[in-house]
Write a structure and sequence with these properties.
RutC-like_sf, 60s Ribosomal Protein L30, Chain: A, six-stranded mixed sheet, 134 residues, alpha+beta, YjgF/YER057c/UK114
């Protein structure tokens, strides 16, 4: 097995080490980003929904930038929403601030019952430069 090329955003490595997962793995020209939530630096949820969504995107963008990428390079998005029927409209008012111009990435939205105290999570795959060759 080849060594995983892990990408960490600045200042959040301890959080990922504590929870035992990689925030993103670069492989074969792609960046596979773990689900990002609206967590504060200590890992606790941002209580207000719009602020939580913005922080989730900010956390995502921190990883993308650490990989030399941006949201413009994202090709596939999966979002998880607790109680989407009541929260979708509020979430989708914030999303265009980060989404960029068309053509947009593919999207899968999944309604869930629990996200460890969060209401929104975003997971992406982006096209990036591969520094490992594998």
């Amino acid at each position: 097995m080849t060594k995983r090329d892990v990408v960490f955003s600045p200042g959040r490595q301890e959080l990922y080490e504590r929870n035992r997962y990689s925030p993103a793995i670069r492989s074969n020209g792609f960046l596979f980003v773990s689900g990002q939530v609206g967590s504060r630096d200590d890992g606790s949820p941002e209580p207000e929904l719009e602020t939580q969504i913005r922080r989730a995107f900010d956390n995502l963008n921190g990883i993308l930038h650490a990989a030399g990428s941006s949201f413009d390079d994202v090709i596939d998005v999966t979002v998880f929403i607790v109680d989407p029927e009541s929260k979708f409209e509020a979430i989708w008012k914030v999303v265009p601030e980060y989404w960029g111009q068309a053509p947009h990435p593919t999207l899968t939205a999944v309604g869930v019952t629990w996200l460890y105290g969060f209401d929104f999570e975003i997971k992406v795959i982006a096209k990036v430069s591969d520094t490992t060759g594998g």
